[in-house]
Amino acid sequence: xxxxxxxxxxxxxxxxxxxxxxxxxxxxxxxxxxxxxxxxxxxxxxxxxxxxxxxxxxxxxxxxxxxxxxxxxxxxx
Length: 77
Description:
CATH class: Alpha Beta
Mean pLDDT: 93
Strand content: 35-45%
Strand order of the largest sheet: 2-1-3
Structural class: alpha+beta
Protein name: DUF7336 domain-containing protein
Number of domains: 1
Shape: flat
Pfam families: DUF7336
InterPro entries: DUF7336
Order of helices and strands: EEHEH
Distance between the termini: 46 Å
CATH topology: Ubiquitin-like (UB roll)
Largest sheet: 3 strands, antiparallel
Helix content: 10-25%
Low-confidence stretches: none
C-alpha cells in the first residue's frame, strides 16, 4: 500500500470550521461506502453530503511542506 484515503466531515460553526476525521481507508471505495453508512446518522444528516471529503495521501511522504500562520496573523489588518 502506497497511499491511503482520509475521510473527513467539515462544516462551519459561526467563524470556525468543525472537522471530524472519520477514518483512514486503503481504497477510495471503502471511504465512499462509509459516507453511505454515515450520511443519515444523527448530526451528519443535518448537513449536506458535500460536507464529507476524501483526500488521498501518499505514505512516507511529507504532505504539508510549507509553513503556516496563526489565525491571529491571518486576521491582522
